[in-house]
Amino acid sequence: MEAHVAPADIVIKLVKVSTRFGSHIVHSDLDLEVRRGEIFALVGGSGSGKSTLLREMILLHRPDSGSIQVLGADLLTLGDDEALALRQRWGVMFQHGGLFGSLTVKENIGLPLREHTDLTDDFIDDLATWKLSMAGLPAEVGAQYPADLSGGMMKRASLARALALDPDLLFLDEPTAGLDPASADGVDELIRTLRDLFGLTIVMITHDLDLLWQVTDRVAVLADGHVQGVGSMNDLSRSDMPAIRQFFDGPRGRAAEQQKNALAITHNATRESSSKQK
Amino acid sequence: MLLGFVGESAVTLAGWIAHPARMRWRPVLYNIRSAGFDALPIVGLLSFLLGIVVAYQGADQLRQYGANIYVADLVGLSMLREFAPLITAIIVAGRSGSAYAAPIGTMSVTEEIDAMRTIGIAPMDLLVLPKVIGLVVVLPLLTVFADVLGVFGGMIMARAELGVSFGEFLDRFVTAVSISSYLVGLGKAPFFATIIAIVGCFQGFRTKGGADAVGRHTTRSVVQSIFLVIVADALFSVAFSALDL
Questions:
Q1: Mind listing the pLDDT tens digit for each residue in B134-169?
Q2: Domains in chain A: boundaries
Q3: Which residues of chain A register pLDDT less than 70?
Q4: Does residue A40 belong to the interface with chain B, where contact is any CB pair within 8 Å?
Q5: Which of A179, B22, B161, B184 is most exposed by smallest CB count within 10 Å?
Q6: In three state form, how does the secondary structure of chain A look?
Q7: Are A112 and B112 in contact (CB < 8 Å)?
């Protein structure tokens, strides 16, 4: 179904992953691949196991069987030191931020650097401020505590911390959930910029159809413990599998698709007019 | 579940002992202050009052037999062997057990624990061991403090009710209370400390869901640690009587 991809370009590879909670089967023999430099999204209804799958990719949960390879390392046979080294190569933005309430935003962002590098405190502060601006927040926010931040700022601060160690791989859990439309648009833009500027591979969980249409390269739909389909949003929208159709056929699904098409037309139009001027 | 947690703590502790450089001293010192120094007033006051109560309850009986001076035996042995370690552990379980469970529980709920793991900081290193070590250091010290104030409370009551002067009381106290009685009481404190710290942290880590779960697990941590402290104390009594201490 999909074009063959060189193994070196596969950043995450899941083979026959099975997960159970008691008698409840979350994943059964699930296979998935994420390629270098793409923005990849996991979607699925509540309880479809996408959060569990993300937790398995970032070493927070062990599957019952199967193998997971991330950045060339096999997560199930990893020693403590290798796990520590691997964790420094990815950043995670949690749904609720996961910022430490007892530290200021700047200290939060600097924490991974303080833990894992020998940099001086001044330099770490400078880096933290820079990461903060990369995530689109003004420097003043650095002195505030997470409890004082709005939802959107919290997500951006969490993203800044995820970027602290210049990761190769970024995991985002619901990056736009609970944000007002303007902030959500800002996050869309930010995610795309990060990938384009730094060549990051980005894996996210989201329900946000606008984000899916406008930002992602490939999307995997999870249902009944399996990946029901993987492909670009355009490919998936032409699929006729019921679990996937469910996703596109609601009024929200159609509205987001139309908006994407409308945007693409204006985008092309501006590009044409600007090329004519040249 | 709890046993698994105890095992995990022990493994981390072994790692610290093997690599002392990995130890995190700041949180240990912070815990010594918050669980120990800050608890001095309440531990002191309550054991002082307990000393008064013990002497008062004994006074009537002793007076009937004209054995006033034996109030020193009564207060000394009961405070040093039993009441001071127990009341200290119960106060600390209420104060610090909840102070361990609630913040850790909140951190579990707000994904801070997960974030900590992904940043590459083991929560055991930062959140559990400093509390266990801090409390193991501090609870015996608090117990000594409780011993002193409890006996002092008993002395005051002995003088008021039985006419035993401080000098007479202390003379009798020295002969009546052996060093082993003192050590028996003190030796229980590190075990109580471990129980309180481990149960508090364990309940914190088990918290899942929302704010209501934090409250539920905090309550549970206090109830369980007081329960286990008293059970452990009873087991110590059985063991000591078998050993004739």
A1: 999 999 999 999 999 999 999 999 999 899 999 999
A2: 1-78+186-272, 90-166
A3: 1-8, 263-278
A4: no
A5: B22
A6: CCCCCCHHHEEEEEEEEEEEECCEEEEEEEEEEEECCCEEEEEECCCCCHHHHHHHHCCCCCCCEEEEEECCEEHHHCCHHHHHHHHCCEEEEECCECCCCCCCHHHHHHHHHHHHCCCCHHHHHHHHHHHHHHCCCCHHHHHCCHHHCCHHHHHHHHHHHHCCCCCCEEEEECCCCCCCHHHHHHHHHHHHHHHHHHCCEEEEECCCHHHHHHHCCEEEEEECCEEEEEECHHHHHHCCCHHHHHHHHCHHHHHHHHHHHHHHHHHHHHHHHHHHHC
A7: no
Q: Mean pLDDT throughout B183-211?
A: 93
**Chain B interface, mutation test: which of A62, A81, A87, most B Cβ atoms within 10 Å?**
A87
Does the CB of A112 have a partner CB in chain B at under 8 Å? yes
**Model confidence over A99-142: pLDDT tens digits?**
998 899 999 999 999 888 888 999 999 999 999 998 888 889 99
Q: Which residue of B has its CA nearest to A81?
A: B120
Q: What is the pLDDT of residue A261?
A: 75
Which of B19, B22, B108, B112 is the best substitution to test chain A (most A C-beta atoms within 10 A)? B112
**Amino acid letter, A197:** L
What is the structure's pLDDT at A1? 44
pLDDT average, residue stretch B13-18: 83
Query: Does any CB of chain A come closer than 8 Å to the CB of residue B115?
Result: yes
The C-alpha of B13 sits at a distance from chain A's nearest C-alpha, in angstroms, of 15
Distance CA A156, CA A140 (A): 14
Whether A82 and chain B come into contact, CB under 8 Å, resolves to no
B114 contacts A116? CB cut-off 8 A: no
If you classify domain A1-78+186-272 with CATH, what class do you get? alpha beta
Reply yes or no on whether the pLDDT at B91 is more than 80.
yes
**Structure tokens of A175?**
């990056």
